[in-house]
Amino acid sequence: MNLFWDSEASGRRLLWLSWLVLAVLAAVVLLTRTLTPIDETRYVGAAWEMWLRGDFLVPFKNGEPYSHKPPFFFWMFHVGWALFGINEWWPRLVAPLFSAGASGLVFLLARRLWPQQPATAGLSALMLTTSLWWMLFSTTTMFDVLLAFWVLVGMHGVLAAADGRRWGFAGLGVAIGMGALTKGPVILLHLLPITLLAPWWNPGLPRRRWFGGVVLALLLGAVIALAWAIPAGLSGGKTYRNAIFWGQTANRMVASFAHKQPIWWYLPMLPLLLFPWFVWPDLWRALAGLKREGLDRGARFCLAWLLPVLIAFSLVSGKQQHYLIPLFPAFAMLAARGLVARPARRVVLPVLLVALLGVLLALAGAGVFRARLDGLAALPLVWPGVLICVAALVAWQAVRRGCQPSVALALLSALALSLTLISAQPAIEPLYDIKPMAQAIRKVQQQGATVVNLQGYHAQYQFLGRLEAPLVELGDDPAQQLAWLKGHPDAYVVVYFRDAHVLNTIPALHQQIYRGGAVALVSAQEAATLLGAEGGQRHALMR
């Protein structure tokens, strides 16, 4: 076993295995689901509107400047469209590609922190790649894995600067600037604490030179971000300019300490987010042994990265599980360091939990929980749940016969998620596949008719329908909605319902189930009827 952990070749093999896992997961997701409303379709829709306008400075959402996100993610979509033409698959590959890049950066960072334990690098990459929430968001068109990539670039810069390489501060500055272009000023929350704690994890630093370099890195990051923000603010108008310079900084900071969620909100989430590693007793025994021996420089580096940011996110109110994604590399490296020092031998608890998942999936597919699954389009498939149970048994037996427990758990975790996605596809995909509605809207617009969205619109139809005109948004006042519809009898309206059972009672150009309810494209006259007090109650119209 020690020979395995001391082998540099084994570390490289684990890195390649992590990339193979990502490729399989990306393929499964591409085959089992489309772009999902509301977030994925909104972000690709913003990039689509930029592409249509030929405006690569200011993102747009339904014809209006979109200030909630910077443009780097959208630019990555444009690169693929420029190379391969307009398509749906490229935007869905951007996050997996950056996830693969992040795994490579973790490998290199762990190798620099623990050069005498080469397998730690590969195990760090594999443990990161097969953590549950990392796998999910590596296959989702969201910003967090891209942000994690730039955080890792910044960590390489910090470590290089601590080792006396001046280019490290330039790397830190680039990471700050690109992170700001990816998800805004939150990049500072991820990168600044470890620089402030550098005298703890790297004793003997000349403090004046160190903190002077950090200031220069901040200035470089600001220059990179402002190189976009200033011309974009001038181009996007006063409202957009105020939003990106004020709303994305001071306003968010003011709102962030309202404590809408309790301070401990993240803690019970960690076993799920970091499954299977967080629920593995042998891992915690290995980390306890690491603590008893005394923390080395690499372990302190990971703790200085992980703990201050986790505490900061616990203090602010705007809590979402995926906000912690950029912290996963620190946990993976620390965990790998402990396991290499004290290899695990048992995998009973995480394997049992995976087997339990398989049993629940199989029972759900067999109809045992039919009453609780009424909102799904169909029952899940049975056979993936059975295969998960078989895979759990195989993993347990493989460990008993000498297979590396961490490798067995990693592969079991990735296989379980892949099979769960396959099992859930017929049950969930029809609820979120809005491409038919988007295409129906496009046909109406091509005939010259105006299309109205009766509820709050998140631009979810813009890209999937390749729409070239925005939808009209009428606000929330039913009286104003009704007046507009009566004044535009030739328009068509997208109407949402709480109950999908009403679809057969409504005359519509197109109708389908949608996110637990239903959506229909109807004439303005029909929409006006539905907006009436009796009609709205009769059809459970969503207000």
**Beta-sheet strand percentage?**
under 5%
Major β-sheet annotation:
5 strands, mixed
Total strands: the figure is 7
Low-confidence stretches: 533-538
What's the pLDDT, averaged over the residues? 91
**Strand ordering within the main sheet:** 4-3-5-7-6
* Alpha plus pi helix count: 24
How much is the radius of gyration in Å?
A: 25 Å
Structural class: mainly alpha
What would you call the shape?
globular
Which bin fits the share of residues in helices? 55-70%
Straight-line N-to-C gap: 62 Å
Protein architecture, described:
Helix 5 runs parallel beside helix 8. The protein is mainly alpha-helical and 543 residues long. The strands form 2 sheets. It has a 5-stranded mixed sheet with strand order 4-3-5-7-6. The chain contains 24 helices and 7 strands. About 1% of the residues have low confidence.
Task: Summarize it.
The chain is mainly alpha-helical and 543 residues long. The chain has helices at 2-5, 8-32, 39-53, 72-84, 89-113, 119-129, 132-138, 144-162, 167-183, 186-196, 198-201, 207-236, 238-255, 270-273, 281-293, 297-315, 328-341, 348-365, 383-400, 405-432, 435-446, 478-487, 524-531, 533-538; strands at 60-61, 64-65, 451-453, 472-473, 492-497, 510-514, 517-523.
What are the salient characteristics of this protein?
543 residues, mainly alpha, two-stranded antiparallel ribbon
Set out the fold topology.
Blueprint: H1 2-5, H2 8-32, H3 39-53, E1 60-61, E2 64-65, H4 72-84, H5 89-113, H6 119-129, H7 132-138, H8 144-162, H9 167-183, H10 186-196, H11 198-201, H12 207-236, H13 238-255, H14 270-273, H15 281-293, H16 297-315, H17 328-341, H18 348-365, H19 383-400, H20 405-432, H21 435-446, E3 451-453, E4 472-473, H22 478-487, E5 492-497, E6 510-514, E7 517-523, H23 524-531, H24 533-538
Helix pairs in contact: 2-5, 2-6, 2-20, 3-4, 5-6, 5-8, 6-17, 8-9, 8-10, 9-10, 9-12, 10-16, 12-13, 15-17, 16-17, 18-19, 18-20, 19-20, 22-23
